[in-house]
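Example record used in the benchmark description.
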Amino acid sequence: MVARIYDPRRAAVYQRLGIPTVASVSWTSERIMRRVLPDQPAVEWTDASASISIVERAVAPGWSGRRLSELEERKELRVVAVGRLGSALLPASDLVLQDGDLIYVAARSEAIAELDVLLAAPGSARH
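Model output (structure tokens):
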């Protein structure tokens, strides 16, 4: 069973009650904005409690040639998939990131901004 909801505020309430929902207005608006403003960071998925999100991010040039483990070691995050050359990979920690990779990261929702800072300044991930 899935509830289709037109009011995004009600969708959030239904999700917190554990009822799977599709908020068609929010979903459609987000998809349109992602096409109009493709450079803006987007959230792919958020759990019903809004505590964990999965986001898609492009690998910044400074991360090319570095191991995925360097990205994961300093923050509460997990890279759950890597998009490379039109295919998806389930990454191992020894995977070396390449220019043009897309990473799909599961992280605490409040830590997304920290993730973006880390991705923009790869030197801060080294010990």
